[in-house]
Design a protein that fits this description.
The structure is a homodimer.
Chain A (H helix, E strand, L loop, with lengths): L3 E2 L9 E3 L32 H8 L4 E3 L2 H7 L7 E3 L1 H7 L4 E6 L10 H13 L4 E6 L3 H12 L3 E7 H6 L1 H9 L3 E5 L5 H5 L8 H14 L3 E3 L6 H6 L1 H13 L6 E5 L4 H17 L4 E7 L4 H4 L1 E6 L8 E6 L21 H8 L4 E5 L1 H15 L5 H19 L5 E6 L7 H8 L10 H8 L10
Parallel strand pairs in A: 5-15, 6-7, 6-9, 7-8, 10-11, 10-15, 11-14
Antiparallel strand pairs in A: 1-4, 2-3, 4-5, 12-13
């Protein structure tokens, strides 16, 4: 009885899947917030290299992966596809549950898939230093690793409260040679203006990183989710999943992943979405988000800023309002007010479903998963596990041998304090405030209606 | 250019390699400390099941791995063999460096290889509960995982100071359903007698665990290293390494691993040792131990207790004295006063070499390894990395295409505070006291001389 499906490294994908030409409906370009006109490359050149800007707007269905990037992917890719037989037995379900595990990367999540690509294109453009922000630390550590592998410098503005609470993530970033700043700093105007908020926020940290990158000719900015090129890089996950499922002799009826900014879920499903659109497949896609930050299930489809303080182009997406502050759930990677525009377009068109999961339910399923499969999942991935369990139980209800593919985006080794809280019975289901959301939605920027 | 060599899971070994019949010299049995006579199975039945006792003394060269154990090994085995090409380039060495990575197990080290086997034989014997001790937490978490997979209870006596300093290891044990006690407890006589030492010690924790196991008909004790059956279970590492090296078309000139109690290193090298003895190979074997706890390089070859307080049979081994207290180096898994008797016999016979590594050197090499290969190693494994780097540089010196196999026993995700100390320049090279060692060696139990 086979448990793991491992592709040979010659089968690391040779191109990324660009979903943009397949998106339904009229193209909705990002808008320059000053002019209200479509944002062009010139809006992005101060902080991104042309290689990535071209990917951001490309109409090519596939984009070749540079050999140097594939060489680095070989350090951990292809990642394993594993049949969760013990979980199936525990649930007593006829469903077949497979999970694609991205936690085998050195940084412990899917994030290096894009970090390595972004470092490569910046290095090609003569950039020697990347600046970014990080909250929980997944993205900051992934970019630090990528920069080290390309012999570049990496500067990370880490949200103050995370900097204090997550010293081990910080040590990880430093082990790969990155520099970590406790944000807000006095290194930037943005930081100095926020000195009265010493615990910091992702919004402040983004502003600091962008400011440094925009001012420094040798430095660029790097973003870990949301943008088209980031989702693009993550499609190695879905492509490998298709090949490995073929080894297993199955094809998923439903694909489940967790959604924060959306890059993990997008990378998992876009190759399957294309197979639906072009290959006649009928797979369902289910994104799991925190009930405390229910962007896809409760947000409004509108143009909004990508960041909290309003520095980015306006993007068409489901949003809770760019200055809405989600409750501090442990799945820090899912605490984002919007979602990747490409993913939102698919949700809007009814081609992708979403579900909201409460964090106590997520952790209960994560502990069950760990008890069956061994791996202790990241809190983000725990949301997808809960949605998977619900799918498997629904399949049992109707007696269906449903094939479920779960994207397990990372391990929880740096999130054990959340498990401690769960075991101690101290984990709460944090509620978001509908009134706060309504107020935040009332502060959406002026832009054409798209709903 | 291939980087990873992955065996299909059908190639998980079907038997363990038992080195006992191949050991050089006269057999040296463990001795009952009361009678001075060879310890028999009856000395062990109160705390171990007969299946493991038979393995402890078996003369069979191979012992079949039960199918139930192999099924669980499939959750993470075979583990990858990886060519460290980027490290080779950084060292500018003609050596070929391969590493066998055990950190992909759910507990993050090689420990589950034996924990799963021990849980299985106990379950077969009708035992529903295992009791053990843990220092840094690697073994306690591995046994908790194994017990969960066989639906057994697991009770872990965790050294007080580790319990306080390593809450995340504790959360890991609890996530797999294990119960963790802060040792010394008031649950045992041993614990109550040590109430004046609230920070605890491994010696006290062992005493507590053994006491509970000896008194409880439904419970047994489990040990994570040193004993023959533990080393036996770990030989899946070396066997897979031989097969994967064959995929790579090479055979190691030298095999390097870290040595604490010895089970990781033994499991790595014993299949190669047999190939030397029976197959005419001439591979060298190099064990790396901390300079602060230099058992193999500075210890005396003598009969000594396996535990600190003197409850176990006397074992023939290199020892620093059973009550010698090594300095608190971060590689907690290497802080043991003795070593596996089987390994010591090979060292004594000159068939295995040992080297002592200072912890600042170990961490410097670990950071270089992480910068090249991505993976952040456990402090224990860092010692083996340093010895590997030294071998690779020696090969460069003489212009030799030396093939080096490194056993990378685990990742450092739960040891990042040590990396923080290293980055902050606060890591010290702790010295052990020769005077303390001499005194401890003066307290060796009465037993026949073997040196």
């Amino acid at each position: 009885m086979t448990t793991k499906y491992l592709l040979d490294e010659s089968r690391i994908p040779t191109s990324w899947v660009n979903i943009l030409p397949d998106l339904p409906g009229e193209p909705l370009p990002p808008l320059n917030p000053g002019t209200g006109q479509p944002a062009g490359p010139e809006d992005l050149t101060p902080i991104f290299p042309m290689g990535l800007i071209e990917q951001e707007v490309s109409a090519e269905p596939e984009i070749e992966i540079p050999e140097e990037v594939r060489e680095i992917y070989k350090l951990w890719r292809p990642t394993p596809l594993i049949r969760a037989r013990r979980l199936e037995r525990a649930l007593d379900t006829p469903a077949h549950i497979y999970y694609k595990y991205e936690g085998v990367s050195p940084a412990g999540s899917h994030k290096p898939n894009s970090a390595v690509a972004q470092a490569y294109y910046n290095k090609q453009a003569g950039i020697d230093r990347l600046v970014t922000e990080t909250g929980a630390g997944q993205w900051g550590s992934a970019l630090s690793l990528a920069c080290r592998l390309f012999e570049m410098e990496c500067e990370v503005f880490m949200v103050g409260v995370s900097y204090d609470q997550k010293p081990y993530r910080r040590a990880m970033i430093e082990t790969w040679g990155g520099t970590v700043h406790r944000s807000p700093t006095d290194l930037t105007e943005a930081g100095r203006s926020q000195a009265s908020h010493p615990s910091g926020s992702l919004g402040i940290a983004i502003s600091e990183a962008v400011e440094i990158a925009a001012k420094s000719p040798d430095a660029n900015y790097a973003l870990g989710s949301v943008l088209n090129h980031v989702c693009l890089h993550q499609t190695v996950i879905g492509q490998e999943s298709i090949d490995a499922m073929e080894m297993a002799g199955e094809y998923p009826d439903v694909v489940v992943g967790c959604v924060g900014g959306g890059s993990n879920f997008a990378g998992l499903i876009y190759p399957f979405v294309r197979a639906n659109l072009r290959g006649g497949r009928t797979t369902r896609f289910l994104g799991a988000e925190p009930a405390a930050c229910p962007t896809l299930t409760k947000g409004r489809y509108a143009y909004d800023f990508g960041d909290t303080v309003g520095m980015t182009p306006l993007m068409p997406m489901y949003t809770l309002g760019h200055d809405f502050v989600p409750p501090p759930v442990h799945a820090g990677g899912l605490r984002y007010h919007g979602d990747a525009p490409s993913l939102c377009a698919l949700v809007k068109a009814g081609m992708v479903e979403a579900t909201a999961v409460r964090q106590t339910e997520a952790f209960a399923s994560a502990v069950q998963f760990a008890s069956c499969e061994g791996i202790i999942p990241a809190p983000e991935a725990a949301h997808a596990i809960r949605a998977t369990v619900d799918e498997a139980l629904a399949a049992k209800e109707v007696g269906e041998e449903r094939v479920i593919l779960l994207g397990l985006s990372g391990h929880g080794h740096f999130d054990m304090s959340a498990y401690s809280a769960y075991h101690a019975g101290e984990l709460e289901d944090l509620e978001f405030s509908e009134a706060d959301m309504d107020e935040a939605l009332g502060r959406l920027p002026e832009a054409p209606s798209i709903a």
